[in-house]
Amino acid sequence: MTPSLMNFLLSLLAGVLIVVVPATVGLIIISQADKVQRG
């Protein structure tokens, strides 16, 4: 594996950890805290 490919894969992993994980956790927390009352 070339160094540039390794850096690309690491940057993708870093992007997932920095953007996707906190966004998912935030949405889960908000959805649990702000329940819609039906009925």
Labels describing this entry:
39 residues; 0% strand; thylakoid; transmembrane helix; PSII_PsbX_type_1_subfam; 1 helix; Photosystem II reaction center protein X
3D architecture notes:
The chain is mainly α and 39 residues long. Helices cover 79% and strands 0% of the residues. The protein is built from 1 helix and no strands. It has one helix at residues 3-33. The longest helix has 31 residues, at 3-33. The protein is rod-shaped and about 60 Å long. The model has no long low-confidence stretch (mean pLDDT 91).
Order of helical and strand elements: H
Largest sheet: none
Structural class: mainly alpha
Strand-residue proportion = under 5%
**How much helicity do the residues have?**
over 70%
Span of the ends, CA to CA = 58 Å
Question: What is the number of strand segments?
Answer: 0
Shape type: rod-shaped
Low-confidence stretches: none
Rg, rounded, reads: 17 Å
Number of helices: 1
If you average the pLDDT, what whole number results?
91
